[in-house]
Amino acid sequence: MNLPPHITIRHDHLWIGEHDTVELARTWGTPLYVTDQDRIEACYMACRDALSAEYPRVRILYAAKANGNLAVLRALAALGAGADVFSSGELHLALAAGMQPGTLLFNGSSKSRSDLALAVERGVPVSVDSFDELGQLEAVAAAAGKTARIAFRVNPAIDVPTHPKIATGLATSKFGIAHHLIPTAYREALSCAHIDPVGIHCHIGSQILDVEPFARACEVMMKIVREITGMGVRLEFVDLGGGLGIPYHRGEGERSPNPADYARAVIPLFRQGIREAGISPELWIEPGRSLVADSTLLLAGVNSVKPAHRNFVNVDAGFNLLVRPAMYDSWHEVIAANRAGQERKVTCTVAGPICESGDILAHDRLLPELAAGDLIAVLDAGAYGFAMSSQYNSRPRCPEIILKGRSAALMRRGEDIGDLIRTMETPPWQERGR
Ligand SMILES: *Cc1c(COP(=O)(O)O)cnc(C)c1O
């Protein structure tokens, strides 16, 4: 079936690392998110080594939104990663995980004054997304008596072959400043007393399975780098963003570029650009999905089966826990975890427990004959999985466990009914005995 190396089938059961998923489900219950820390570390090191083989001054900023659990951030921080943070919450988590402020980049097209003030106070560089934001940041930094280190987010107007909801570098995207306005932006930044333009940034989209768009974006960026260096900007980093895809359809032989493919396609263009500009900045990249997606399974128990116009397999996890199929039409491999060696002979539709027709995790998949009490595993659930979960239908979120070698531990406890009502308040006119 072409599984990643840490996912194996042994004696009819699906294993992740050194753990039998059937045992994990018995111990921790379902639904359950299971993350393999060793796999995340291996992906990070493969990425770091492939890039630094082509250019020594590389920094990897993990895109914290893909999976913001502190245990994941801590594991990556210990290996030297920084982070792309997209909110004050992600900034706090990255620092709590032990990352250095100067290795973070505060991204986003709609930051509040308090977001900007936090970045200035903690010394986190800001990727500025508009002229309006530049003016506000100058005022915030002046009020704090500090200098804000910034990059501009460039919209390179690159058409990217991915789902339209995750293409972020189109000319029509909400992100970034149009590339032809970027020199003007740096000129304005140079005239600000409390702004230090030290970087330049772009991010063209997500789940990109071809290295060509990255190479084209790099060319656009290097042209701007030469121009703004000539204007007197002293760049300390060039951040080319994230977006490398993973082979969700690996069963059908889909391939994704590995970090070495990316490095070979992009870094020579980067090196040529900085040579022509006469500078040697750090190269930053911001992978999210490619570091964490395949580290994680979502385990779900089968509640019932219903032969109808489709063979429905009704499970206890739906788009409350994994929204990607409903939101992006994403395809995730599904395996019958306690019957993993059995012949796949029934075409099934795996449906969640949420009161929405769109709550389907997988359409028309060949699976072994299933019954209530069986266990299914949804693969590649580590990026934009738990991170996008909700309490819709008043379902407490499930626990997340993390594996390291033969050890397994909670990295987030499951919620209970108390968690659902903890933040709710009773308006005074509804209080009893009034
Ligand atoms: C989401 C995002 C990333 C990560 O994208 P992946 O596809 O998960 O690698 C990187 N940079 C920025 C600015 C982002 O918004």
Highlighted features:
alpha/beta, 9-stranded parallel sheet, 24% strand, binds pyridoxal-5'-phosphate
Briefly say what this structure is:
This protein is an alpha/beta fold and 434 residues long. It has helices at 21-28, 37-54, 70-78, 88-96, 113-122, 131-144, 182-190, 212-230, 259-277, 289-292, 324-328, 417-421; strands at residues 7-10, 13-16, 19-20, 32-36, 58-63, 82-85, 104-106, 126-128, 148-155, 177-178, 195-201, 237-239, 282-285, 296-307, 311-315, 334-336, 346-351, 360-367, 375-378, 400-404, 407-412.
Structural description of this entry:
This protein is of the alpha/beta class. Helix content is 30%, strand content 24%. It has 12 helices and 21 strands. It has helices at residues 21-28, 37-54, 70-78, 88-96, 113-122, 131-144, 182-190, 212-230, 259-277, 289-292, 324-328, 417-421, and strands spanning 7-10, 13-16, 19-20, 32-36, 58-63, 82-85, 104-106, 126-128, 148-155, 177-178, 195-201, 237-239, 282-285, 296-307, 311-315, 334-336, 346-351, 360-367, 375-378, 400-404, 407-412. Strands 4, 14, 15, 16, 17, 18, 19, 20 and 21 form a 9-stranded mixed sheet that branches. α2 (37-54) packs parallel to α9, α5 (113-122) packs across α6 (131-144) and α8 runs parallel beside α9 (259-277). It starts with 6 loop residues before the first strand and ends in a 13-residue tail after the last helix. The mean pLDDT is 96. Bound molecules: pyridoxal-5'-phosphate (PLP). Pyridoxal-5'-phosphate binds at residues 63, 65-66, 84, 107, 203, 206, 241-244, 286-290, 383.
